[in-house]
Amino acid sequence: MAASGTLLVLFLFAHAAGNLKIFVGEADFDHYAHWLREIGVPLLPSGWFLWIQRFGMLLAIGLHIWAATVLTIRAKKARPVKYSHRPKIQGSYAARTMRWGGVIIALFVIYHILDLTTGHLNPVGGDTEPSARVIADFAPSHWYVTLFYVVAVVAVGFHLRHGIWSAVRTMGQQTSKGERRAKAIALALSVILVAMYLSVPFAVTLGLVG
Amino acid sequence: MTTDFWTEGEPVVDKAAPDGPVETRWERRKFNAKLVNPANRRKLTVIIVGTGLAGGSAAATLAEAGYQVKSYCYQDSPRRAHSIAAQGGINAAKNYRNDGDSVYRLFYDTVKGGDFRARESNVYRLAQVSVNIIDQCVAQGVPFAREYGGLLDNRSFGGTQVSRTFYARGQTGQQLLLGAYQALERQIGLGNVEMNARHEMLELIIVDGKARGIVVRDMVTGEISTEFADAVVLASGGYGNVFFLSTNAKGCNVTASWRAHRKGALFANPCYTQIHPTCIPESGSHQSKLTLMSESLRNDGRVWVPKAQKDTRRAADIPEDERDYYLERIYPSFGNLVPRDIASRAAKNVCDEGRGVGPGGLGVYLDFADAINRLGRKAVEAKYGNLFEMYERITGEDPYETPMRIYPAVHYTMGGLWVDYDLQSTIPGLFVVGEANFSDHGANRLGASALMQGLADGYFVLPNTISNYLAAGPFPKVTASDAPVVEARKQVEDRIEKFLSINGDRTVDSFHRELGQIMWEYCGMERSEEGLTKAIGLIRALKEEFWTRVKVPGKGEELNQNLEKAGRVADFIELGELMCIDALHRRESCGGHFRAESQTPDGEALRHDDEFSYAAAWEYFGADGRPTLHKEDLNFEYVHPSTRSYK
Amino acid sequence: MDIKVRVWRQSGPSAGGKMVTYDVKGISPDASFLEMIDVLNETLILNGDDPIAFDHDCREGICGACSMVINGVAHGPEKATTTCQLHMRKFSDGDVIDVEPWRAAAFPVIKDLVVDRSAFDKIIQAGGYITVPTGTAPDAHATPVPKKDADAAFEAATCIGCGACVAACPNGSSMLFTAAKITHLGLMPQGQPERDSRVIDMLQAQDDAGFGGCTNAGECTTVCPKGIPLSLIGRLNSDYRKAITKR
């Protein structure tokens, strides 16, 4: 979980940084999107890097889900009879919502790809002008799309708040001081990431961009 | 001498004890003991009942040596044996403090502390092996308290003038037991020990005059089985629960020892009971046990009561000159650190005068205000923090703000099955270790000596002496169809059947509580001929009532905690009678036994060495209902009896 | 105080169970939780009902026998406190209190509130010790141990093996228990020779016993009566990583 999760977190940050390009200008954003396909050229043919990276992501996601499934199945087996008095959450809320939060995020990722990558759900702009697609997506009339996006991004934030710290612990972090630090960093990173992701749709909805 | 209550038989003699210089007795005994060839050891089986410090360490050590060990405990895991609750520490004559300690001084202190009613040979051996215990435990990873230089820390404990007590915060027993438990688990994992948790020994099997096995009940399924071995070791602890309220765990019981006693093993000095001065007082009729606060608290706490009777003011409102720091007043040189028996009786006396504090007037203050002023709250917290927390959890009072209330409670029993120097009882092949035997503490045990004795017996003494017995084995095979085995099994089954069939109108606990009240009233901190005679009558009547009115619900073939308790209480009732008879016959005051008729003009204990310098070993009630007394004379060649004075 | 308790009743390992409600009247706030059950049991016995079976022994918070999930919380509402040290003054008159056993596949119910925790012994058997046959030890002062390490080892060694961590863990994991022993022995110089095999073998035993996996949810440490911190699990993870890379 920790290794695949770390890869996914790195991707999320790269993705978020790219998103912010839209504040520099729509043309720059489109140029950035185009550049993604040209990484590695001429060593690699155009688009190859993106595909390699996509496969890498898919593998990480696959491993992450597989590990989560194994843990979930083990957890179910380890407690065949449930408590009648539902146990109160005393540890962290974020920690206790990892599983369902993860499922919500997975569903969102599928939607998100169909929406903004392949354009199946949002046939505006085409591959050459992704900025137009983004702007169309988060238009005020599409408030429900924006809302779904916001909910999903906040879920990612919760997921990472526990996930980043938990990964550090799994890797062997072991002092109480380090624990406080790791938890603070996980929280900060999650908040920053959520802010980065939410800035784009909010800007579009409020008409600051486009 | 024969009375209405007992008859006197032949003296009992410890034939295993070597004579000659005390310093070399243990060496010589080890050298003269027969050994068992390592290749033959795996053909020999030893049953060990109990997994506390003595039983756990003995099982691990004998298994390491190559014997087949079968181990039994009533708890769900060997790690829960009641040794785990010991707080204060463990003595060892390491002299790491360079304060004049030595094996001889520990020996001297222990004989004197036991009020000259222990065997010199045993005590000297205990002091000798004490140093090995610490080495062993440190090697096992027991996290003793340490100094900044990385070396072991020591403290002075319970009335000694040297610092020889090793400790692990207030949880020394837990840490030592986990060390022994881990060694035992290692042997279980290796297949050298067959561990049977949740199993209770209900009878001893004797074949051809030798202890050859036990009858046990599986406490989960209720199945009764017979288990055989070449020797049986009882490490089943003390019998403080005869008082119902004590600091013992709820499950602690005398059944293993008592069953052996009924089969012929002598029971020595049953009346020697240690009453611990620093326990949390009772809070009401629901009380199920008492909790001890480590005696180390007396190092910094000051004990006092109001000078006036029935003073109901809050402690803080009682001015300094209206307080009676009675231990410091009566015993100026030892003050609050006088031995346990003296501190306990002093508390009883001030409460009897009507100066006790708290509910029912059964309590005295243990005040840390001075220590907090002198050392600062932080230092006090570092030393006693966990004890203070425990006190607050139980009483709901904050001891940093209001003084603790303490009262004496039964804590340890010095008496037990009689054993010789080899720790063998009067039944060949039956060995008894730890608190279950009577051997090392005399009439009073010093603080931090129980852990020392348990581990000394289990790690170092028994493994060396039992080989002398086992060298004659393996003994002829015993089977379940042998007449003595069938009979022992039947006794167990009949008794269970009897408990379940009475179906009376009183619960087991109600009998246990009543027995406890009788014992505490008449055979507690102060005993008298009149009281003890009355108690014997009351106990006999209670026994009669028990066997006609007890109600034990459920069946035998299931987990049945009331059936377990019924068996234990039935044995406690018989033991209680013997304790009163022993207390009645010992017309002197010594150690934990204080007879009202035998005191100095200023109320101190008065021994009668001319008449009572012996261990009283009792044979089970004969046909006429009277136990037979066998005396073992005690000779003091090194530490000459003197009057203990802590003034 | 007058209260109601709803208690899990199950007559045997393979029997079904259910929550049964009992009235308990006139309980002193100074009584412990187990003393309240004692009082209830006395009534049940005299009424010809089967008393509630529950594990308990020392009743001073050190043996680790008592084990009740009270209102969904292992050992009940008071922090750093075993069931036996919980007192009725923590509850209010008229409360309805749910009492259940530890629930974990590795801790099967024997009867009512009594569970079988021998899986913990198996984890210790796998490596929770230092191999030192009796009588072979060097002098206790031969190896100084820095006070900081000895104190930290002691803190970890205070685990009483009650199993509350497993009962509270959403995954039914025994990681905190195992980590406490790994930390205790791993901090002592005497524990170094077996450090690598210990962590590998104990984790294997833990998986074999049917405990769930750890997701650092942190519920264990909130119910631990001895306050064993979650950070020890990081230490176990670190030891494990080093041990498998060496192998």
From TrEMBL, chain B:
Keywords: Flavoprotein, Oxidoreductase. InterPro entries: FAD-dep_OxRdtase_2_FAD-bd, FAD/NAD-bd_sf, Fum_R/Succ_DH_flav-like_C_sf, Fum_Rdtase/Succ_DH_flav-like_C, SdhA/FrdA/AprA, Succ_DH/Fum_Rdt_flav_su, Succ_DH/fumarate_Rdtase_cat_sf. The keyword rRNA-binding does not apply. Residues 46-451 form the FAD-dependent oxidoreductase 2 FAD-binding domain. Transmembrane segments: none annotated. SUPFAM superfamilies: FAD/NAD(P)-binding domain, Succinate dehydrogenase/fumarate reductase flavoprotein C-terminal domain, Succinate dehydrogenase/fumarate reductase flavoprotein, catalytic domain. It comes from the Bacteria. Residues 512-646 form the Fumarate reductase/succinate dehydrogenase flavoprotein-like C-terminal domain. NCBIfam families: PRK07573.1 (NF005749), sdhA_Bsu (TIGR01811). This is Fumarate reductase/succinate dehydrogenase flavoprotein subunit. The lineage of its organism: Bacteria, Bacillati, Actinomycetota, Actinomycetes, Micromonosporales.
TrEMBL record, chain C:
SUPFAM superfamilies: 2Fe-2S ferredoxin-like (SSF54292), alpha-helical ferredoxin (SSF46548). Residues 150-179 form the 4Fe-4S ferredoxin-type domain. Keywords: Iron, Iron-sulfur, Metal-binding. Its cofactor is [2Fe-2S] cluster; [3Fe-4S] cluster. Residues 18-103 form the 2Fe-2S ferredoxin-type domain. The keyword Metal-binding applies. Belongs to the succinate dehydrogenase/fumarate reductase iron-sulfur protein family. NCBIfam families: PRK07570.1. PANTHER family: SUCCINATE DEHYDROGENASE, SUCCINATE DEHYDROGENASE IRON-SULFUR PROTEIN. This is Succinate dehydrogenase/fumarate reductase iron-sulfur subunit. It comes from Actinoplanes sandaracinus. The lineage of its organism: Bacteria, Bacillati, Actinomycetota, Actinomycetes, Micromonosporales.
